[in-house]
Design goal:
Two copies of one chain form a homodimer. With 299 residues, chain A is mainly alpha-helical. Chain A has one domain: Farnesyl Diphosphate Synthase (Orthogonal Bundle). Chain A has 14 helices and two strands. In chain A, strands 1-2 form a two-stranded antiparallel sheet. In chain A, α3 crosses α9 and α8 packs antiparallel against α9. The longest helix of chain A has 34 residues. Chain A is globular, with a radius of gyration of 19 Å. The two termini of chain A are 29 Å apart. At the A-B interface, α2, α6, α7 and α8 of A face α2, α6, α7 and α8 of B.
């Protein structure tokens, strides 16, 4: 059996996504150059495009294609990018560097960063409505997708996750609270990506259910791995192997259960995700490969 | 002929809108109390509800009713409120008082204000999608309304208006630029309110066209009056009749063309608006009365 070439798959899908995102930016470029430049700066900053790739791969896994899923995939990436811009603001996480580049409010200014985040969020819904208007037989699906995505990113999802994250700074969380925080902050939108793609590919209820289980597990695995990468990054920076200082700084899996147990847990989550795909055929190979990639990645 | 009782009409519609907004807040109250409280604080701060009332009145003017228009009316008020919260932030207009109460970031904190604005914007689209899902014969209309509202509030509309407003501080604008700024900042969403209502009331193309002319004119009249109220407010505060200092502070109609010409202009705009309604029957009396109210109001 030939192994699935994830690297090639990702490069194809990322090119497709980046092309469409670029088109969306060009179609929305009539306004203030500073605003447009800030939106482009953050949207094209070299993100992994994990969410839109998952959306497309989920559509493919149930027999759909990339073309039908791309508006939802791009809308989700726009929302993900807006959330990063707002989270980085001085009043929030006060981060000055993201992906090796100055964050939006450093490269531009705070007002521009707030407004460009607002604009990316708003454009996401314009794109989804446009797709629905142009798809006469799929209008109910698009309305459902708007509901799925707005719920996942709203005050019962991503925004609530950020609110909890801010208020838990310096407070020690238990594992249950940490998982709930992560589900809200990143898991909900990852699940929405998969659900949207599966809906657009006309997946059955049972297929969508299983894909949601897949998504819940890889969402958490992604976060555990992020925590591990941060700790190992910290450790490297400090020139220590164990990074014990780094461990104590924040509510992370390595801090709560240790590095080894965190690694075992991430592996377990990926196995759960793969198990949820058991009855799918080889059209879900990209999803399988992404699950493994999530814990093997180095950034 | 009995005069139309606008005061009574407004009190009825505002009660309807406030009830529904309260319900929306209660349905979205599972998250952090601080976030929920901030959303409620700003949404229920005693706004005039001009946009949602216009949405409902436009639906009625073409033969629809308030019930069919209320989800769009509320979504627009959620978006209007989010824009006020974000505009008031220290990085933007840095306002500490709105409607006689501390602004959201003063009453709570900046992070909560940013996130509650984000949440109100996001909920708006959830409500619109929900309405579309439940209206099997009107799905295309709801998708169009999502597009209308996202465009009016996005980076070719309201957000661009705020961006221009910030960047024009201290720069002298001519009348054309000032009108373009106002159309973007407030006119676009006012027009979207009227268009959405008319679509939901199943207005004809020609009716919608004329209602858009009505909306364009009252949107501008609203802004000219706002400028006049500000100048007269400033004048009162400074204990001067003419308020010349106040006049020089900002790009306003009174500053550019003088107080008297501004008043004449506002009256002219209202007359244009009334003229656009000429072929409508008495179901558009609320819209007529609102046009006159807009320049007669004291706040």
């Amino acid at each position: 059996m030939k192994t699935f070439d994830l690297k090639y798959y990702l490069s194809l899908k990322r090119a497709l996504i980046d092309d469409r995102l670029d088109k969306i930016l060009r179609e929305n470029s009539s306004g203030s150059p500073r605003l447009i430049n800030a939106m482009r700066y953050s949207l094209m900053a070299g993100g992994k495009r994990l969410r839109p790739v998952l959306c497309i791969a989920s559509s493919e896994a149930v027999g759909g294609d990339a073309a039908c899923a791309i508006p939802a995939a791009c809308a989700i990436e726009l929302i993900h990018t807006y959330s990063l811009i707002h989270d980085d603001l001085p009043a929030m996480d006060n981060d000055e560097i993201r992906r090796g580049k100055p964050t939006c409010h450093i490269a531009f200014d705070e007002a521009t960063a707030i407004l460009s985040g607002d604009a990316l969020l708003t454009i996401a819904f314009e794109i989804l409505s446009e797709a629905g208007i142009n798809d006469s037989s799929g209008r109910l699906n698009w309305l459902k997708i708007i509901r799925i995505i707005s719920r996942a990113s709203g005050c019962s999802g991503m925004i609530e996750g950020q609110m909890k994250d801010i208020s838990s700074e310096g407070v020690r969380l238990d594992l249950k609270d940490l998982e709930s925080l992560h589900f809200l902050k990143t898991g909900a939108l990852i699940q929405a990506s998969v659900e949207s793609g599966a809906l657009l590919g006309n997946g059955s209820f049972s297929q969508i259910d299983r894909l949601m289980i897949y998504a819940g597990n890889i969402g958490l695995a992604f976060q555990v791995t992020d925590d591990l990468l941060n700790v190992e990054g910290d450790a490297k920076e400090m020139g220590k192997a164990t990074g014990t200082d780094g461990l104590k700084k924040k509510n992370t899996y390595p801090f709560l259960v240790g590095i080894e147990k965190s690694k075992t847990y991430a592996l377990e989550l990926v196995n759960n995700a793969l198990q949820a795909l058991e009855d799918f055929d080889n059209k879900s190979d990209p999803l399988r490969a992404i699950a493994s990639y999530i814990i093997e990645r180095k950034r």
